[in-house]
């Protein structure tokens, strides 16, 4: 239908007389343009080529809020499709008018203007910079405490689209003093407000350690963790990724995440969620937390995360991406983990690719610790080690040799497979001494 | 005589000779053998002599060579010693310097080692500061969590209150509507069943509520729409589209008043502007401003500039005659035609001004259209 309209050339006629008509006409015309432009980039391109942008911008200057709403909605749908159309919208001079629209008292107009700004700035850093230069950030930041849920959604989405492109833009967003007001959004009753709030924090946290530091200092990590705990499904995803990004920057930040009790919710996510990409994100975040030092790995291991990760890795229903991420996370954590009681249960179930890391860890710890050696024997670990077949000369074999060298010969022989047969053979061949 | 003496000698020598001749063969052999022995001896002796000489000469040569080499060694020894002694000072200085440098390096390494360890432990990887920081973070987190919880609770309370209020309002409205269900003295109402111990709370509500009156017809102000639409609407406000409706139960005011319908009609009569007025109404704002601008230009109130001091008049407000109309004999009437006069005596190079280029082609042809006889000198 939209294509039919475009083909019939109705658009130019609609547009040419727009400035002189009254507000009802303008509203209806804006509605038509929006409806045509929303279906595909080609149609939006056709709308732009027929000169609609100037008219929509003229409508934006109108006094009637309904007309402004229709115009900005149309601009939003045009700008949504691709960067060139966004650039065309910006070139038509729409951005300062949209920023003015945001300051209007009508809530619906604010909502639409915020969503249009969000659509414009999401494509590229230059467009985001244009939006920022028009002074949008201050007004958007002022609207965060507004009680209207849909408005908050759009505002948070706009800020996160601006902040995601570069460090400078993220710093500008932070300088608008959104912390700690943004944290109240994480406690909102509306799911999408929580999601967009978490997205905004994620976009800020991912750039540099300093920005993550700001988030931690303002208590953002605790708020995000609570948000993860209280929501379900894809709403959790940006929160999980925030924790991952914060922990990835440095070990101090990772320790801060641990101290804020971040690991149990992530573990719950791994277990409860059904979607693979959320599980993959949770596994990645846990890997980032645990990979720094032995302390971190110990905290992660104590929370009983490793068996869960291993189960996911071995599970045939997991997708490739999930498996890769779980394997990487396991590898990173295991390489620093010296907490042997957590490694024991893994020993029995792990596939060979993970096994070599586990054995490697054992071979690093056992030569130095008596009690650990004793425990290792009593829990059947040594037996399991003997049963592993490794090619001679491989890394695994070296680790196994190191472990075997920690124990006296008899014990190693005792636990090696087939020892009972050897003993029985000796019994058979033995001549009793009379 | 000689012969005689010779003879004796001869006889003697002849005998000797014979004797010699007898011995000759043996003598020959003897002679030969002796010679041969001597010869061989001589050869042997010769060879021995050669050998001795050879050996001796060799000894001499060897001694000489030994001497030479000894001398050479001596020279070299002295020379090298001399050279070394000359550069001894530098060598010692260098060695001393290297030794000092190694020592200083080691000491510097020691200092740097301790300083870096201290610095890193105190500032960069300060364990205690990290611990304090993490404690502060957890305290802050607790605070933030508490505040957020408070905020969430507050929000919930607000919503609950709003719901409650809405319900209350609903109930009260219902009670007002169903006021007739109130029980009278004779007949108990629906909510006041005789079998109940105490009347239903609804009964109490009914008792307290005021009965609803007939709703007044909502008179929408005729001005609202038009004023709202004024900035963008093309047509100017005709002040009112419809006549306002007076309330039906309005009492007729006492006095000699005209019929209100008539009055209203007269007062709110629709404007029917002439074509000229309508044109100017529809015209764009800039054009509308122009008549006023023209009028302002035409009769300004204030021509004189602001004069702060009265003496300004006397000195500055002089009549300045126009240059165009002033001539040699006073002022010429405005509009007299004249042309620029030519003064050949004033010419600098016997030539009048030359135009660099002809500005107007037609005027160039002045006096030259047909022939050069019409030339102006």
Topology readout:
The complex is a heterodimer of chains A (434) and B (377).
Chain A: H1 2-7, H2 10-16, H3 23-37, H4 41-49, H5 52-60, H6 65-80, H7 83-91, H8 94-102, H9 107-121, H10 125-133, H11 136-142, H12 149-163, H13 167-175, H14 181-185, H15 191-205, H16 209-217, H17 220-230, H18 237-249, H19 251-259, H20 263-272, H21 276-290, H22 294-302, H23 306-314, H24 320-336, H25 340-349, H26 352-365, H27 370-378, H28 381-387, H29 395-406, H30 409-415, H31 419-429
Chain B: H1 2-124, H2 127-177, H3 201-208, H4 222-229, H5 260-267, H6 275-282, H7 285-298, H8 311-316, E1 326-327, E2 330-331, H9 361-364
Antiparallel strand pairs in B: 1-2
- The level of helicity of chain B is 55-70%
Shape type of chain B: elongated
Number of strands of chain B: 2
Distance between the termini of chain A: 108 Å
Counting DSSP H or I runs of 4 or more residues, the number of helices of chain B is 9
Q: In order across it, which strands form the biggest sheet of chain B?
A: 1-2
Sheet/helix structural class of chain B? mainly alpha
- The percent of residues in helical segments of chain A reads over 70%
- Indicate the overall shape of chain A: elongated
* Regions with little confidence, pLDDT below 50 for 5+ residues of chain A: none
| Major sheet of chain B | 2 strands, antiparallel
The value of Rg of chain A in angstroms is 31 Å
Mean pLDDT of chain A: 87
Summarize the biggest pleated sheet of chain A. none
- Quaternary structure type: heterodimer
Largest interface: A-B, 30 and 22 residues
Number of helices of chain A: 31
Q: How many strands of chain A? A: 0
What portion of residues of chain B belong to β-strands? under 5%
Q: Which runs of chain B of at least 5 residues are low in confidence (pLDDT < 50)?
A: 226-238
